[in-house]
Amino acid sequence: MIIKEYRVVLPLTVEEYQVGQLWSVAEASKAETGGGEGVEVLKNEPFEDSPLFHGKYANGQYTYKVYHLASKVPALLRKVAPKGSLSIYEEAWNAYPYCRTVLTNPDYMKDAFCVKIETIHLPDRGTTENAHNLSPAELAKREVIHVNIANDHEFLTHADIHQDTRPSTFHSQKTGRGPLTGNWISNCQPVMCCYKLVTVHFKWFGLQHLVESYAHKQYPRLFSKFHREVFCWIDKWHGLTMQDIREIEDRVQRELNEARQKGQVRGMTG
């Protein structure tokens, strides 16, 4: 089992990020869906009385999704896994500013595979040493990785870099923020940090190290690419309300169902 904590600093308030993150998830889902693959939303509904994060949060929004990912997993897994078994099921409890996401593959790997992502969003510069209230034993296993969204050369591939989502050159017309240059993490206002604790569990003889290492190679890439987009799309989502977001999610859910049935495979690949 590998435990890593990814810290992503953003020039946003914690309140702004709630809207920006949800809007960007919907937008990014469309970019990853087509040709029989992509995101299928099964549930998106409120939940109550489900204590999370040491009982501090109990209410929020529950989502249940299936990621049809055949072309996005390591080639070795594609060779050994039966056709149709490479779908990942995602359950997420978003009790903002805390969110827990659990990824499984019950059709094939069953309890041999699980990824848990716990995120707490705080108004700081990534300096909280133990944002997740981990025990001394857990802290001893944890590795902290800082993700700088303005760095084009860390974690990303050439295909991930697009001129319209480069924080080092982007300037927001609505907010006046950006471009993010120099020592921006120490100087920007407003500021917040996403503390993402990722635990990868894969118990399959001969493949455990490969899959756990592959996952942790992909997560900083995914977190960097996604949060670059959240910031550079700010003029598209800034000022929207949560009611606006729920309406957008309903519309996108219908669009994803249609897109998955046609077109070509899209988005990030391994």
UniProtKB/TrEMBL annotation:
InterPro entries: PI_transfer (IPR001666), PI_transfer_N (IPR055261), START-like_dom_sf (IPR023393). The lineage of its organism: Eukaryota, Metazoa, Ecdysozoa, Nematoda, Chromadorea. Residues 1-253 form the Phosphatidylinositol transfer protein N-terminal domain. It holds the Pfam family IP_trans. One of its GO terms (molecular function) is phosphatidylinositol binding. PANTHER family: PHOSPHATIDYLINOSITOL TRANSFER PROTEIN, VIBRATOR, ISOFORM B. This is Phosphatidylinositol transfer protein. One of its GO terms (cellular component) is cytoplasm.
